[in-house]
Specification:
It is a single chain. By secondary structure, the chain is α+β, with helices and mostly antiparallel strands. The chain is built from two helices and four strands; from the N terminus they run E-H-E-E-H-E. A four-stranded antiparallel β-sheet has the order 2-3-1-4, with helices on one face. Strand 2 and strand 3 form a beta hairpin.
């Protein structure tokens, strides 16, 4: 079953790093929902945010491949919880008491 994951990649200031990451994802036929890259002002490192839909086993393999790329400092990921999941389905309802 496919889940939504967010991968955060810390990398050096290399313009080709994003294209190498996207080539790896393209070869694995992973659906990319969102891509964001920004620079940390305190350091010269870039942070790449990717939202994907895949199986967790496949994501672990891709994480290992990305981690081996030159210029990548650290890679980590987490599962994005659905807003309409069973955990968040409870709502507080105020009902007036029926008095006669």
């Amino acid at each position: 079953m496919k889940h939504k994951f967010r991968i955060i990649i810390l990398g050096e200031n290399d313009t080709r790093l994003l294209s190498r990451i996207l080539i790896i994802l393209n070869r694995r036929n992973l659906k990319t929902n969102h891509i964001n890259v920004y620079n940390d002002k305190n350091s010269s490192n870039f942070q790449h945010l990717l939202d994907l839909e895949s199986k967790e086993e496949e994501l672990i393999k891709v994480k290992k491949l990305i981690d081996k790329l030159i210029g990548v400092i650290h890679v980590f990921y987490y599962k994005i919880e659905e807003k309409n999941s069973r955990k968040n389905s409870w709502k507080r309802i105020d009902l007036p008491l029926a008095t006669s």
